[in-house]
Amino acid sequence: MSLLVSAAATAAALWAYGFQPRRAHPGPAFVPIQDGKTIDFSDGSPAVKDSAADRAAIDAAVKDIDAASRDVSFPAEPPPKK
Which pTM was predicted? Predict the structure, then answer.
């Protein structure tokens, strides 16, 4: 009798798990990258924006990156010895 009860409980649990509603997860939003424009996610969805303030911020960031990486170099590793 206990085997029948445990089999029925297992079947009920598997049935409840198998038929529970699933949430549909939308895929990631596709926004093509465009030079000189920014993608704004502030409202929860991507929006391509192009304003003078954004362009100025991008230009300033590029100058900072260029200045920071101007003197950086990576020496080549010596060839392995045989």
Answer: 0.47
